[in-house]
Specification:
Layout lengths: L1 H4 L11 H35 L4 H67 L2 H25 L11 H18 L17 H5 L36
Helix pairs in contact: 2-3
GO biological process, one term: vacuolar transport
Keywords: Coiled coil
Family: Belongs to the SNF7 family.
Length: 236
């Protein structure tokens, strides 16, 4: 059967925008090369026209130059047409790439949306509120435990706070009186040695003055007004 009817040929895929753009650009490069050659030929004919005198020879050169100029105008028209086609293909390619980018963006957003929905299902506002309430209760219990552990056992419960405040005020008043003189409390001032003579009010020691004339040892008196003890001489 295949030999009789033959095999159906598979259709080739249509050319892409990039392929069409590359093909047109190559054609444009070819046309540009032809235009450059025609420009060089025109310049050569211009030089010949300048060197020849008016007459049949100059007219023949002008005819050749006119022919080359017509070809150049034709190729320039083709080049402009190819440039327009390339521009259109670039615009289509830009629009196609923009649509592809939009499709990828939409796909990424859909995937992120599904992921967020799955995450939001596992997180509930009520659960967060309940957890916050439990944390506050635990903190209150912790504070009560700390206060209980920090309770002092040596302080009796029947102490009058007003009486303590009165003693504290009296202590502050005493400290204020001590610091009125020089601003230094008495318990911080340097120790001074007491003056024992002034405290005991004792008389000074005998100065050893001579007994006045006309008075005997028996009549002599000491500093306190008592009779002085006579000095005796011991003989051997």
């Amino acid at each position: 059967m295949k030999k009789i009817f033959g095999v159906k040929k598979e259709k080739e895929p249509p050319p892409s925008i990039n392929d069409a753009s590359d093909r047109i650009n190559k054609r444009g490069d070819t046309v540009d090369e032809k235009i450059k050659k025609l420009d060089a030929e025109l310049n050569r004919y211009k030089e010949q026209i300048k060197r020849t005198r008016p007459g049949p020879a100059q007219e023949a050169v002008k005819a050749r130059a006119m022919r080359v100029l017509k070809q150049k105008r034709m190729y320039e028209g083709q080049r402009d047409m190819l440039y327009n086609q390339t521009f259109n293909l670039d615009q289509v390619a830009f629009a196609s790439e923009g649509i592809k980018d939009a499709q990828q963006t939409m796909s990424a957003l859909k995937s992120a949306n599904q992921e967020l929905k799955g995450m939001m299902k596992s997180v509930k506002i009520q659960d967060i509120d309940n957890m916050q309430d439990e944390m506050m209760d635990l903190m209150d219990v912790s504070n009560e435990i700390q206060e209980t552990l920090g309770r002092s056992y040596s302080v009796p419960d029947d102490i009058d706070e007003e009486e303590l405040m009165g003693e504290l005020d009296a202590l502050e008043a005493d400290m204020g009186m001590e610091t009125e003189s020089d601003g230094v409390p008495s318990y911080l001032q340097p120790d001074k040695e007491p003056d024992l003579d002034s405290e005991l009010n004792l008389p000074s020691a005998p100065s050893g003055q001579a007994i006045p004339a006309g008075r005997s040892h028996a009549q002599a008196e000491d500093e306190l007004g008592f009779p002085a003890v006579p000095q005796t001489t011991i003989r051997g």
